[in-house]
Write a structure and sequence with these properties.
With 298 residues, this protein is an alpha/beta fold. It has a single domain, classed as Divalent-metal-dependent TIM barrel enzymes (TIM Barrel). α3 links the parallel β4 and β5. α3 packs across α4, α4 crosses α5 and α10 crosses α11. The chain is globular, with a radius of gyration of 18 Å. The N and C termini lie close together (6 Å).
Length: 298
């Protein structure tokens, strides 16, 4: 069964909290519900207490989907990471979540004022060692009924198609993939993300339906600007935006053929003062549901 979700960063950004700072929390939840989403991911506005979170979102008819967890496996042991992640897993379990969204952030430049081309890179041996640690942590999550879905992401050690390949080869069956169409497109400098999804569909357990504006992406890359410069300039957008470069029809076709069962989340951060979140999130959901209907994806 396909469920459709959103992320509060469309309204109130987590990395640059000046974006959307004027938008009330209740407005985010009310609009997400009105648009027709089944659930919403984590954001800095939500309470950390598992039951408070469940009650807040539930009062708007929204499920808690999951939430980003920043890993530090390159800087600490797996045992220390297990202890650190446990409260997050407890929150996920209390809210009936099936996946834990995780990404290594110990050396990320995603929030830094740094040229996006300067993302950290692991050697082949370092990637193998990193993958082994991820796999051990993923097995720990599986024991608790949660799949660790690794988020390939701009500014991190798993960004390009080649790095996704190396990471997937370095990990085992416990480690699942969060496929993000936008980060795949951006990370490959505008290549079609379809082959990556097709290659790893058997290990994909979560999907972010993020779109990219190629013209903004090119400007950010050509002028040495940062990831957050790109966000503020509108590098990301939603499915259905005519400025976007990602074709979502073949992606949804792959999901259908594979019998994908899970969430498709429109996680597309933009400056809400420039691009109205209600308008864009509505466009994204309408587009995905129309494509799903054509493909008989349910």
């Amino acid at each position: 069964m396909i469920l459709y979700g959103t992320n509060p960063i469309a309204w109130a950004n987590d990395d640059d909290q000046t974006l959307g700072a004027n938008i009330p929390t209740q407005q985010i939840l009310t609009e997400a519900s009105e648009i027709g989403f089944d659930g919403i991911e984590n954001g800095h506005r939500w309470p950390n207490d598992p039951e408070e979170l469940k009650q807040l979102l539930g009062s708007h008819g929204l499920a808690f989907i999951s939430g980003w967890y920043s890993l530090n496996l390159l800087a600490q042991s797996v045992e220390d990471e297990k202890k650190a992640i446990q409260p997050h897993l407890d929150k996920l379990k209390h809210n009936g979540c099936k996946v834990c969204i995780a990404c290594e952030t110990s050396n990320t430049i995603q929030g830094a004022d740094t040229d996006i081309s300067g993302s950290p890179v692991l050697t082949a041996d370092e990637m193998k060692a990193f993958g082994a640690k991820i796999e051990e942590l993923a097995a720990f999550c599986v024991e608790q009924g949660i799949d660790l879905v690794y988020h390939h992401h701009m500014g991190t050690v798993v960004e390009t198609p080649e790095e996704i390949d190396a990471f997937m080869a370095a990990t085992g069956p416990a480690t699942k993939l969060l496929f993000d169409a936008g980060h795949c497109y951006f990370g490959s400098n505008g290549q079609d993300p379809t082959p990556i999804l097709k290659k790893y569909i058997d290990r994909v357990k979560h999907v972010h339906a993020k779109n990219v504006r190629p013209a903004v992406m090119k400007e950010i890359r050509d002028t040495g600007k940062s990831f957050m410069d790109g966000v503020r300039a509108g590098v990301f957008t939603v499915p259905g935006d005519t400025e976007g470069g990602v074709d979502f029809e073949p992606l949804l076709r792959i999901l259908k053929e594979a019998g994908y069962d899970g969430w498709i989340v429109i996680e597309a951060e933009q400056d809400p003062d420039v691009r109205n979140p209600h308008q864009y999130q509505s466009l994204g959901l309408k587009t995905l549901k129309a494509l799903a209907k054509e493909l008989n994806l349910t």
